[in-house]
Design goal:
The complex is a heterodimer of chains A (208) and B (372).
Chain A: H1 3-28, H2 32-52, H3 56-80, H4 93-117, H5 132-141, H6 145-167, H7 173-178, H8 181-184
Chain B: H1 7-17, H2 22-29, H3 31-59, H4 75-85, H5 96-113, H6 131-139, H7 142-152, H8 156-187, H9 192-198, H10 208-211, H11 213-226, H12 251-276, H13 286-293, H14 300-329, H15 337-365
The chains are: A mainly alpha (208), B mainly alpha (372).
Chain lengths: 208, 372
């Protein structure tokens, strides 16, 4: 075993321990903010594992998308939604916990049989790509073209939906009485936008 | 194999000649570039802080630091030392772990990004194939550190400040990435070495700034916003606003935030030099001069001169942008948060998309000039 292999084995062990520890923390900790931060740790360790597998592009994409976008989104959601719920003792609470444990154990058994039954022996002649980006591009535009296009359409739909959701501001009922109802009949139920006086200079008014 | 200085090869060979096994020689080599990069980044920050004081003094017709070393050169070191010895206060109801981890998460990715900055053909820590993409993805870790710092302070101002800083960081990352993507499209590679190579053929006329003027401006604005430099320094506005995520921080943890933002400024300036101004190439290519004088490219002394000139050129170009950033700090007024978000989402994002499409069209139309 030479130096490079030793470094790889040690870093694999460290990353695996980090990932399992962080994943357990995500599930077991009671503070939801801790769980969200630890989720970032799980994603980063996964990126490290991809790096060990010579998949540098996937590793960078993992950090950019999962750590930079998904995890920040989760954190924003947790920090902006200030929902307080008092703990109430439900009568048959153990049924829920038992059902959850049953489902989790079933999933675990399924996955472990999959791990044990799959032949993991890798053919040693697997060509290591010189330029991963070029290879990924070639695959995306030849044999994976349909999934690629479908994913693009799905993302576009999600984006349009997000814009529509973000633009609609429902009018609170007490204000709805004040506004002339005839004016609103043929329009989306949106609050009329009047900019604050300081902004009037540099904004286009969208009166609806 | 490209010509140039192979520092790693000669270092390992020198150690092997001394009788060390090859593996041990390699293991001794490995930490050297990393430590060197840390030192370079830190010295770059010290120089930037000193420049900031001197230039701002000149702008306001003052003298600036004078007595701490000649021309006040030691002032930034004294600052660092002062911050090191300040009491490190942990607010009573703050979250101790997250409070400490926040600044670390802001600083570490920025330092890690230095491993893709090239100072010459072989003067780079690691020639990653996806270098620019790696830089963008590493810089996307920063918002998590800001959110963590804001949350852990257990203070409403800090929490809102952290959210605002993260929002700023996210909204300027997209135009930044799109303008970089146009450059990447022209050079057909994500590697910083290839991007510089592609600009190297015609001296100053081959630089990307002539082909990407729009992308250059977008990159500069977005980079300033990412570094929280002055028209966009809302998260850390010094005494004008109740400061953002760093309200509760003191001592070394506070210094880490400032260190992070200054290292980020130096890094962005270096990357502007690499992406748009031909990196280590001098305005008149050294190889061309060598050809005129009849000196071969593989001559050792010419290679040493090329390497030195490369480092000097990169630093000169980068510090020109640091100078511009400092000048801007004392020239432009600060934007409001709604202006900041409007500029990012309603102006820079569409313009950078148009720039990307335009580059693609030009690449198809004139493959000679736009790297077809």
């Amino acid at each position: 075993m030479n130096l490079a292999e030793g470094v790889q084995i040690v870093s694999f062990g460290l990353l695996a321990v980090m990932m399992i520890g962080a994943a357990l923390g995500v599930v077991l900790l009671s503070q939801v903010v801790y769980s969200a931060f630890l989720l970032g740790g799980v994603f980063i360790s996964m990126a490290g594992l991809y790096l060990l597998l010579n998949a540098d592009f996937v590793a960078a994409a993992q950090i950019l998308i999962y750590v930079g976008a998904v995890n920040v989104l989760i954190l924003f959601a947790i920090m902006l939604v200030n929902k307080q719920e008092d703990f109430t003792n439900l009568p048959n609470y153990w049924i829920r916990r038992g059902a959850t444990a049953l489902v989790a154990l079933g999933l675990f058994a399924l996955l472990s049989t999959m791990v044990l039954s799959t032949p993991w022996a890798v053919t040693p002649t697997a060509a290591t790509a010189e330029n991963t980006v070029v290879q990924i591009g070639e695959h995306l535009f030849s044999d994976f073209l349909l999934p690629f296009e479908l994913a693009s359409v799905l993302l576009l739909m999600a984006m349009v939906g997000a814009i529509i959701l973000a633009r609609r501001e429902l009018i609170p009922p007490e204000r709805k009485a004040q506004i002339d109802s005839a004016e609103l009949d043929l329009k989306l139920p949106e609050r009329p936008r009047t900019p604050v006086p300081a902004l009037r200079g540099n904004r286009v008014e969208t009166q609806e | 194999m490209n010509p140039g200085i192979d520092l790693q090869g000669s270092f390992i060979k020198a150690l092997a000649d001394l009788g060390l096994p090859a593996g041990a020689a390699k293991a001794i080599w490995m930490p050297i570039p990393m430590v060197l990069m840390l030192v370079v980044a830190t010295i770059g920050v010290l120089v930037t802080v000193w420049l900031e004081r001197k230039i701002s003094a000149a702008v306001q017709q003052r003298i600036g630091p004078e007595y701490i070393g000649p021309l006040g050169i030691l002032a930034p070191a004294a600052d660092g030392l002062k911050l090191l010895f300040k009491e490190d206060i942990l607010p009573a109801k703050a979250d101790p772990i997250l409070f400490t981890l926040g600044p670390v998460l802001v600083v570490v990715p920025v330092f890690a990004s230095f491993l893709i900055v090239p100072f010459g053909q072989n003067l780079i820590i690691s020639d990653v194939g996806v270098a620019i993409f790696l830089w963008i993805s590493l810089s996307s870790i920063q918002p998590i550190g800001l959110l963590m710092a804001g949350y852990a302070s257990n203070n409403k101002y800090s929490l809102i400040g952290g959210l605002r800083a993260a929002a700023q960081s996210i909204s300027y990352e997209i135009p930044l990435a799109l303008s970089v993507l146009a450059v990447v499209m022209m050079s057909n590679s994500l590697s910083t070495l290839d991007i510089v190579e592609q600009q190297s053929s015609y001296g100053i006329f081959g630089w990307n700034i002539w082909r990407q003027p729009l992308g250059f401006i977008i990159f500069w604005i977005a980079a300033l916003a990412e570094c929280e430099r002055l028209p966009f320094d809302l998260p850390e506005a010094e005494e004008e606003i109740v400061a953002g995520y760093q309200t509760e921080y003191s001592g070394m943890k506070f210094a880490l935030f400032y260190l992070g933002s200054y290292v980020n400024l130096v890094l962005s300036a270096l990357l502007i030099a690499v992406l748009y101004l031909g990196g280590w190439e001098s305005p008149i290519p050294v190889e061309l001069l060598g050809q005129w004088l009849g000196v071969s490219e593989t001559t050792p002394w010419l290679q040493v001169i090329t390497g030195t000139l490369g480092i000097t050129m990169t630093l000169l170009k980068a510090y020109f942008f640091v100078f511009l950033a400092i000048l801007m700090r004392w020239t432009l007024p600060r934007v409001r948060i709604d202006q900041l978000l409007d500029l990012g989402w309603k102006f820079l994002l569409p313009v950078s998309l148009v720039n990307l499409l335009l580059t693609a069209a030009l690449k198809l139309a004139f493959p000679v000039a736009f790297g077809g």
